[in-house]
Automatic annotation (TrEMBL):
<keyword id="KW-0732">Signal</keyword>
<dbReference type="GO" id="GO:0006954">
    <property type="term" value="P:inflammatory response"/>
</dbReference>
<keyword id="KW-0964">Secreted</keyword>
<dbReference type="GO" id="GO:0005576">
    <property type="term" value="C:extracellular region"/>
</dbReference>
<dbReference type="InterPro" id="IPR046350">
    <property type="entry name" value="Cystatin_sf"/>
</dbReference>
<dbReference type="InterPro" id="IPR029562">
    <property type="entry name" value="Chemerin"/>
</dbReference>
<dbReference type="GO" id="GO:0006935">
    <property type="term" value="P:chemotaxis"/>
</dbReference>
<dbReference type="GO" id="GO:0050994">
    <property type="term" value="P:regulation of lipid catabolic process"/>
</dbReference>
<dbReference type="GO" id="GO:0030154">
    <property type="term" value="P:cell differentiation"/>
</dbReference>
<feature type="signal peptide">
    <location>
        <begin position="1"/>
        <end position="21"/>
    </location>
</feature>
<keyword id="KW-0145">Chemotaxis</keyword>
<keyword id="KW-0395">Inflammatory response</keyword>
<keyword id="KW-0221">Differentiation</keyword>
<protein>
    <recommendedName>
        <fullName>Retinoic acid receptor responder protein 2</fullName>
    </recommendedName>
</protein>
<keyword id="KW-1015">Disulfide bond</keyword>
<dbReference type="GO" id="GO:0005102">
    <property type="term" value="F:signaling receptor binding"/>
</dbReference>
Length: 180
């Protein structure tokens, strides 16, 4: 009897845990959901993960206004494998609970959104690895890569504004200052 009770508790716990992961994703602002989706697509195309991955939690997230309705997004988060295969479309959390025999996948993504769409320029940066293998040095490199991407784009915007309005224009200086 106690084995059956333990099995029942573990099954219910797995379903609740998987449902919480789905609820966590659903509660993310759309701008961060886009990054989670980018990472899952990246892992599906280039990774060797045979299982469907669900969002678990955000570790760090920031959005920087670029002006003119654009935003640069940095999002560091964890994904976890479920019992369903990676080709499962919109898996039911009750049917696809989290696997407890797999480590978390830690992802960091940087991208620009404009009018709610991920822009191709600058090209989004997506990197994911099994969490136990992500060192502080790697985490710092990821963040530095995103910072460089944002700085390059800001410098490009600043140059365009200076070309449009003239190098000494106060309008160009005002807009360039709002990019930093």
């Amino acid at each position: 009897m106690s084995c059956q009770l333990l099995f029942l508790l573990l099954t219910v716990g797995a379903c609740v845990s998987s449902t919480e992961g789905r609820r966590s994703y659903d509660q993310l602002p759309d701008r961060y959901k886009k990054g989670v989706d980018l990472a899952r697509e990246h892992l599906l195309l280039y990774g060797s993960f045979p299982y469907h991955l669900l969002f678990v939690k955000s570790l760090n997230a920031s959005a920087v206004e670029t002006g003119f309705g654009g935003k640069y997004i940095y999002h560091n988060f964890d994904l976890k494998a479920t019992t369903c295969s990676n080709d499962t479309v919109d898996p039911d959390p009750k049917r696809c609970p989290f696997r407890d025999d797999r480590t978390l996948i830690n992802c960091a993504v940087c991208y620009k959104i404009f009018s709610g769409k991920v822009q191709k320029v600058p090209m989004p940066y997506v990197t994911c690895a099994h969490k136990p293998f992500v060192t502080q040095e790697q985490a710092d490199k990821r963040f530095a890569q995103c910072t460089k991407m944002f700085e390059r784009a800001s410098a490009y915007i600043r140059t365009l504004l200076q070309q449009l309005f003239g190098a000494n224009s106060t309008l160009a200086a005002d807009h360039a200052g709002s990019q930093d």
